[in-house]
Amino acid sequence: MTASYFVIGISHRTWTGSLRDRLVTEPGEVPAALDRLREAGLTQAVWLATCDRVEVVAADPHPAGAALAVARVMAARAGVDDGELAGPLRTLTGLEAVRHVFAVASSLDSQVVGEPQVLGQLKAAYRQSVAAGLAGSELEALMQAAFAVAKRVRSETAITERPTSIAAAAVDIARDLHGDLVRRKGLLIGLGDMGLLMVDQLREAGLGALTVTTPVDARAEAAARRLGCHYAPFADLETVLAGADVVISAVGLGRRIVTADPVIAALRRRRRQPIFIIDAALPTDVDPAVGEIDAAFVYDLADLERVALRGRVSREAAAAAAWAMVEHAVAGFGRDRAERAATPIVAALRRHFDAERRRVLADGAGPDPDEATRRLVNRLLHAPCEALRRLAAEPDGIGLAERAAAERLLRTLFRLDEPVLDANEDDEP
Predict the structure, then answer these.
(1) CA distance 104 to 53
(2) DSSP secondary-structure letter at 272?
(3) Segment 355-364, tens digit of pLDDT
(4) Nearest to residue 107, comparing CAs of 260, 319, 249, 257?
(5) Coil, strand or helix: which one is 270?
(6) CA 260 to CA 251: how far, in whole Å?
(7) What count of other Cβ atoms lies within 10 Å of the Cβ of residue 372?
(8) What ranges in 5-116 are assigned the alpha helix state H?
């Protein structure tokens, strides 16, 4: 049976902060998550965990049952009853699932449209599925198509310019405020994709030291190992604020992470040396009151975008062009899948016709081509004609709809409504 695509999971559109913290999956934890999916009966699955989403992309002959199995695995990981995930979990099937995967790969479903990390994260997640033996032909086809459309979106539209320009603007402001960044220290709060992008840009610009902290200390420690920097327990946030010249907050839980009193205390310990605070989260992390504090310079993504001179019109035009590419790719992918699905029945039909041809020849039709072709036509039409007669003999309430559908299909398959060619005319190949 042919496998069908589905996607199930939570994202920035549906989750709560506590649920995200419970479901968040570090790269080193993905193999164990994939093992749970295999134990649940899945044979083709990708566990995609980013700052915007925790989703499973899968292919299965029975997508409804497989999606329920994935939901149970996610609930077990989060330590909640299945019913607690019913609201936040979203399930997409068929071409809707394909469209979603293409949009995610192209960074059209991110909180910050165009952010560059997600394609690499999707590729890494797929490599882990391959290593775990959970990547069959259907999943391979979907992933390769997603990578292809994402590459086209990135090369043929300006969709990635916005986040890159925002990060570059942050670097320029940091230099204006602090001068040479080599002796300056950074603090990353949370692991949102825009925060990570800004950290990369600031470190490339020479930022001397970096500390990372998150509401889940284990995540901070794992991230510090990946980034090659220090980490601090979240309970020590007020202390590490005092040592930071540049603060990037990228948690996005919908609650205030950086508030006025800790910033005032940090500035007092810094002897009023300024702090540049970047609110890289959606929803925002920084209390608006912080922006009223002298020597605290707060910029959110909209502020940085204005500095970068990237207008709303150009951004929306790029997104519209990218979505058009995604929709075109989805239609092409669906058409290709449908054609592939028809291949077995077409092959079986050819085998059947050829078998009847050989039977006619074996029955000794002789050298008379008229007799041989007459016998062949009769044999090929015998079974369909009998089936139509049986449908016609059924009471109208039972056989009428089936007979009408069969007649429409025959007219389409054999072009019965087109003019019949004369015997002397050239037939189509």
Answers:
(1) 10
(2) T
(3) 777 777 777 6
(4) 319
(5) coil
(6) 17
(7) 17
(8) 17-23, 30-39, 63-78, 94-105
- Structural domain contains residue 318: no
Owning domain of residue 168? 161-308
Q: How many C-beta neighbours within 10 Å does residue 180 have?
A: 10
Distance CA 333, CA 98 (A): 8
Measure Cα distances from 207 to 4, 175, 202, 237 in Å.
48, 10, 6, 20
What are the two backbone dihedrals, phi and then psi, of residue 244, each rounded to the nearest 5 degrees? -105, 130
H-helix or E-strand spanning residue 92: strand 90-93
136 and 79 within one domain: yes
Residues 198 and 257 in one domain: yes
Distance of CA 247 to the CA centre of its chain: 30
Distance CA 46, CA 122 (A): 9
Q: What is the pLDDT of residues 16-45, one digit of tens each?
A: 767 777 888 888 899 999 999 999 999 999
Confidence of residue 327 (pLDDT cuts 50, 70, 90): very high
Give every CB contact of residue 258 below 8 A, 6+ residues apart in sequence. Answer: 189, 241, 247, 249, 277, 279, 285, 286, 287, 290
Q: What are the tens digits of pLDDT across the range 296-318?
A: 999 999 898 888 764 444 667 78
pLDDT of the residue at 257: 94
146: left (phi over 0), alpha (psi -120 to 50) or beta: alpha
66-98 pLDDT tens trace: 999 999 999 999 888 878 887 889 999 999 999
> Is 229 one of the catalytic residues?
no
Is residue 22 domain-shared with residue 155, that is, in the same domain?
yes
pLDDT confidence of residue 203: 96
Task: Please report where in the chains the tokens 């990946």 appear, as a residue.
Answer: 226
Q: Which of 10, 19, 51, 85 is catalytic?
A: 51
- Report the candidate in 56, 51, 102, 98 with the shortest Cα–Cα distance to residue 75: 56
Residues 400 and 277 in one domain: no
- Return the higher-pLDDT residue of 236 and 418: 236
Q: Which helix (H) or strand (E) holds 200?
A: helix 193-204
Which are the contacts of 129, defined by CB distance < 8 A and separation ≥ 6?
34, 44, 45, 46, 47, 135, 139
Cα–Cα nearest to 224, from 240, 208, 206, 211? 211
Model confidence pTM above 0.90: no
- Residue 424's pLDDT is 47
> Are 362 and 286 part of one and the same domain?
no
| 119/370 Cα distance (integer angstroms) | 63
* AA identity, residue 352: H
Instruction: Mark whether 111 and 219 lie in a shared domain.
Output: no
